[in-house]
Automatic annotation (TrEMBL):
Transmembrane region(s): 6-29, 41-60, 66-96, 117-141, 161-183
The species this protein was found in: Aeromicrobium wangtongii
Protein name (record): Uncharacterized protein
This protein's UniProt keywords: Membrane, Transmembrane, Transmembrane helix
Amino acid sequence: MALTGIRTWLAVLVPPIVIALVGLTHPAHLTQDASARWRDLHIVLLPLFPLLAVGPWLVARSVEPLYGWITLVLGYVYACFYSALDILAGIAAGALKHDREGGLGTVFGYASDLGQIGSIAYLGATAAAAGCVLRVAGARALPGALVSLGGAYGFMENHVYPPWGVVSMLAVAAGWAWMLVAVRLRPAGAG
């Protein structure tokens, strides 16, 4: 299994860390004064959020092709529907507020529903990939799996709002780092 290469580490860890760093600047509330920053931050995040799906897919496909396909499909659902949240509640809502137009409740309602679908899919992809790692690395990977799953759940609950959304992204990265180390340290011939 080729989970220990630098490219894998980068693909698994860089997206949640960069999202966490951007999340540190996320306004707590969408106000008139924060609306342009809110909108622009979500434009920056738009190409980054789908990259979260790459880590679980890379891990799962290297362990078990069936789980690779499962995480690919779940990652795709996540990328589509979470992008809808980012576009509606981030970009559109920020633009509407900045332009002093109505309709925020409608935009946030749709965004929340679509984002929930994406978040659940990301949580599922993370669980499937973590299960693959547990199969090959055993109990040594369990703390990382739990931290990563906790981070994925926190992401679903808190988006990237500081502090908990940022902590969630860092937990995703820390959990994956732990699992990658666990895979690297497994006994020769295992998995």
